[in-house]
Amino acid sequence: MQATRFVETNDGRVGLDQFASRPHDALAAALQQELDAVNTLINEKMSSRHAPRIPEVTAHLVGAGGKRLRPMLTLAAAKLCGYAGGYHIHLAATVEFIHTATLLHDDVVDESKQRRGRPTANLLWDNQSSVLVGDYLFARAFQLMVEPGNLRVLDILAGASSTIAEGEVLQLTVAQDIKTSEETYLQVIRGKTAALFSAATQSGAVLAEAPEEHVEALFTYGDALGVAFQMADDLLDYGGDSAQTGKNVGDDFRERKLTLPVIRAIAAADDTERAFWERTIGRGKQAEGDLEQALALMDKHGTLESTRKTAHDWSQKARDALTVLPESDLRTILSDLAAYVVSRLT
Amino acid sequence: MQATRFVETNDGRVGLDQFASRPHDALAAALQQELDAVNTLINEKMSSRHAPRIPEVTAHLVGAGGKRLRPMLTLAAAKLCGYAGGYHIHLAATVEFIHTATLLHDDVVDESKQRRGRPTANLLWDNQSSVLVGDYLFARAFQLMVEPGNLRVLDILAGASSTIAEGEVLQLTVAQDIKTSEETYLQVIRGKTAALFSAATQSGAVLAEAPEEHVEALFTYGDALGVAFQMADDLLDYGGDSAQTGKNVGDDFRERKLTLPVIRAIAAADDTERAFWERTIGRGKQAEGDLEQALALMDKHGTLESTRKTAHDWSQKARDALTVLPESDLRTILSDLAAYVVSRLT
Q1: B237 and B131 fall within a common domain
Q2: pLDDT score of B11 more than 70
Q3: Domain end: B116, B148, B180, which one?
Q4: Does one domain contain both B134 and B169?
Q5: Does B6 map to a domain?
Q6: For a disulfide at B162, which of A132, A139, A185, B8, Cβ 3.0-4.6 Å?
Q7: Of B148, B175, B191, which residue is a domain's last?
Q8: CB distance from A54 to chain B under 8 Å?
Q9: Contact B169 A129 (CB under 8 A)
Q10: A122 min Cα distance to partner chain B (Å)
Q11: SS3 string of chain A?
């Protein structure tokens, strides 16, 4: 029997891990030694001489169920580009620290109560600790990334951090606004998911001093993987098997989130339908049967199907990007990973 | 008639500016041109292509009443060390962004309602915006500091950022604990105030490629200035003229803060006095007349006087540190500034 694994997105939802099967495990196996070194470094750097609350809160999040997908992307990118030094470990730990810091802050922003199947830090301690420990981890991430001494890597990761924060602010300000465009949606999910994926892969390639063509390919791979991943996640909210996804169908609808299938259904809506979306999402006046009606409208306009197609296109884009890199087992695993992300969207 | 000016410490209190008179104004006059360039850069970098909420929140805080003390310290340090390039502007803006980010987060953590005499961002918008815009500014700070391409500068500022967060977490966890030691108090105020002061001055010197002796001197100056500044602030809470300080005597006592005069009074307490502190600070059971009793105990053990003496010692330490640097008007102003910080503690 396979152990249950959890993955989280930045909006605090917990689901059965999309990556629990082969590609993610294959990646972990291929990078086992480096991954051990990353975990050791994380444990070392999350300590604090003066404030024991910091490692307590961090360990709660970092120790539990984190699958290290982002650091693995950094390690894989560096290795794919033939990196022979030791600083990809620092970079991978940096990426995980940035990720952990954003999770801590997101749980405060969203007032989340659960993450990775456990109570959130803001619930177990308080919002103050989550905000400040997040700040600490963010600062530690920057300290760590200074060590390799590569200014372009610093620029990439600092840029990603600002894109992440910008995406979160954008999500906050467009929440429940039924005029949200596809472009805005893409900007939000880039901030929420894809920016750190692409920074993880691109910075690994830059560290390895790969040719510009390979750096660009790995950026594109990370970006497209992140977009496909988040789109699939948003789509499964309306169609996934809750036993498999660990989520309830319609959570996003109840939380009035403007995800792609809804944005497209609103774009295609007639006046009556528009009034429905304005009432349920815009004003949050939801009644029995509204979720079924929302699903029927998405079905009528084919937006679940078209979103599935778009997610597959992004997955394909990620796989295509890899083809400029030399063939290797690692490249195959990364390609499989991109395929796997959308494989449940039948 | 002189305009009223405000200054804030990281714990969100607003008072009449200790620096409103000569040394701060002299510094601003000596650095006018650079300061204008810093303000222009700040306005440019706080913009966001996608999320207008970001410049709105930032402008509310950065635009209003900020006296740019920290960026001025960076500019002054670089100039004192003969820096002839243009990157001290970036560094100064970086320091102000880090400061602004910590203010936004501190106001969330402390649930503050006022800063610089105006409603806080968390009150005008919400906690979410303050957390996320703070994150954005922090990331922008790192992007900005990558530009000069000086890895040691990056290391100093990343290190200061982690000390700031660590100090804040420490303050949170020792709050209302009457066993708090002087050492812990020093650690807390280093995080809260002195770490960014010393990083501001030290990084300016490093950017200028000053000899190590000068770098160290400017670090010590910033550190000691910050410690003296915060100690004076904590002391004035128990003895300042509220018409002059804009604060009410005893705010820290009512908020059960372990500042130096209290820590020393507790260290000297007999059993009865200890029970008093345990009740009023430890358990927060305060009644009419308790503030007067606290003041009487601090007076009995001479802790207001000894704290005043310690603050003066730190101020002197700051001034002494400067003596290794070549004499100049700027050096004199910095020395005056250190003297001014404690000049109200008669």
Answers
A1: no
A2: no
A3: B148
A4: no
A5: no
A6: A139
A7: B148
A8: yes
A9: yes
A10: 12
A11: CCCCCEEECCCCCEEECCCCCHHHHHHHHHCHHHHHHHHHHHHHHCCCCCCCHHHHHHHHHHCCCCCCHHHHHHHHHHHHCCCCCCCHHHHHHHHHHHHHHHHHHHHHHCCCCEECCEECHHHHCCHHHHHHHHHHHHHHHHHHHHCCCCHHHHHHHHHHHHHHHHHHHHHHHHCCCCCCCHHHHHHHHHHHHHHHHHHHHHHHHHHCCCCHHHHHHHHHHHHHHHHHHHHHHHHHHHHCCHHHHCCCCCHHHHCCCCCHHHHHHHHCCCHHHHHHHHHHHHCCCCCCCHHHHHHHHHHHCCHHHHHHHHHHHHHHHHHHHHCCCCCCHHHHHHHHHHHHHCCCCC
Of A102, A128, A149, the CB nearest to B109: A128
Verify that B136 and B215 share a domain, yes or no. no
B217 inside domain: yes
Closest partner residue to B142 (CB to CB) among A50, A142, A173 is A142
* Residue B245 predicted with pLDDT over 80: no
Within 86-125 of B, beta carbons closer than 8 Å to A belong to 102, 105, 108-109
Which domain covers residue B192, as residue numbers? 150-346
Most B CBs within 10 Å, among A44, A50, A164, to test the B interface? A50
Contacts of B138 in chain A (CB under 8 A): 135, 138, 161, 165
B127 part of contact set with chain A, CB < 8 Å: yes
Q: Are residues B178 and B69 in the same domain?
A: no
Between chains, do A169 and B136 touch, taking CB under 8 Å as contact? yes
Task: Give yes or no: residues B108 and B159 share one domain.
Answer: no
Q: Are residues B216 and B310 in the same domain?
A: yes
Residues of A in contact with B162 (CB under 8 A): 136, 139-140, 143
B277 and B178 together in one domain: yes
* Cβ within 8 Å, pair B142-A154: yes
| Local confidence pLDDT in tens for the 346 residues of chain A | 233 333 444 444 433 344 445 788 999 999 999 999 999 999 999 888 778 888 888 888 877 656 899 999 999 999 999 999 999 999 999 999 999 999 999 888 888 787 777 888 888 888 888 999 999 999 999 999 999 999 999 999 999 999 999 999 998 888 889 999 999 999 999 999 999 999 999 999 999 999 999 999 999 999 999 999 999 999 999 976 555 555 678 888 998 999 999 999 999 999 999 999 999 999 999 999 999 999 999 999 999 999 999 999 999 999 999 999 999 999 999 999 999 999 978 6
Number of cross-chain residue pairs from A and B with Cβ atoms under 8 Å apart:
141
Our measurement of the distance from residue B272's CA atom to the centroid of its chain's CA atoms, rounded to an integer in Å, reads 35
Best of B142, B143, B186 to disrupt the A interface (most A CBs within 10 Å) is B142
Q: Which of B109, B143, B187 sits opposite A132 (nearest CB)?
A: B109
Q: Is residue A59 in a domain?
A: yes
Put simply, the answer to whether B50 touches A166 (Cβ < 8 Å) is yes
Identify whether residues B87 and B198 lie together within a single domain.
no
Residues B85-123: tens digit of each pLDDT: 999 999 999 999 999 999 999 888 888 887 777 888 888
Contact A151/B at CB under 8 A: yes
- Is the CB of B53 inside 8 Å of chain A's CB atoms? yes
* Residue B336, domain CATH: 1.10.600.10
Other beta carbons less than 10 A from residue B258's beta carbon: 25
Q: Which of residues 19-48 of B touch A (CB under 8 A)?
A: 48
Chain centre distance of CA A322 = 20
pLDDT at B65 exceeding the cut of 80: no
Q: Is residue A210 part of a domain?
A: yes
Domains in chain B: how many in total?
2
Min Cα distance B171 → chain A (Å) is: 9
